[in-house]
User: Fold this.
Amino acid sequence: MNGEIVETERALVSAMEPIHLGIFEGIKAYVEGDILDEGNLNIIGWKPHIDRLWRSADVNGLKIPYIKEEMLEATRETVKANGFKTNVYIQPRIWPKAGASRSNPEFHVVIPTWKFDTLLGRGNPRFNAERRYIVSSWRRIASDAMPPQAKSWANYANSGLASREARRYGYDGAIFLDNRGFVCEATVACLMVVRNGRVITPPVTASLLESVTRGFLIEFIAEDLGIPVEVKDFTRVELYASDEAFLCGTGGEVTPITSVDGFKFGDVYPGPITTKVAEYYSDVLAGKVGKRKGWLTSV
Ligand code: PMP
Assistant:
């Protein structure tokens, strides 16, 4: 926190801090060799995540008082200080300090890290859990009102409305439509569907976060798995009529979805392409895919 290793319980700030004006990133590091085991950790997508953090800061008028290399070193030190040997989530947060002058603002920079349980890895039973989703009656925030491409905390008020709505009705999660009525993304992850052997995902212009995971998947599904990928708008009815659907994101990794609004996807769950994508991505994360080792940065 602000240049020092601080225990979470001691990382205290005033109740008057404008944390709601803050931005953040969600990054993960996975165990090399076998992500369900213990060992050395590699960060997936450090560069695109940290570039997005800087873009989010710019859009929101914040200035990160470090250079990107210092953030990487600070992240490494934080993970090491915790002695982590299993997969960890890393969430850099930046917000304006309370009481700093407008002409000379100051910013808090904190890098919380914690362990998480992955859905991925061979034979992981968490992957196969049923997940019933709805299309939310809340639209995703429009890019010309509150840009979803910048990862600011305020955007998640919109996500919270949709996920609470889903839970109220007894569902597991929600998919947004954008302000034009096209399929957008989920509350904390992007969406991909499979139709007739092709993977389809909405474009960034459909008011979604430029997801790092989505970018990696678009690249490897086409190039390494030989499955055609289309980035294009599609409608709610096309979503219902898909053979498979899955979420992708740092938190969600590759998460299969069973149904949307009661319309079930395909005869087999999780679907074959979803499973193939998840297994390959697990290998990428574990550093087993030579061609994709450039996406990893050692802790
Ligand atoms: N959309 C939203 C709203 C998210 O919060 C996230 C998680 N960061 C994603 C998509 C997935 O983005 P990424 O792959 O960069 O984690």
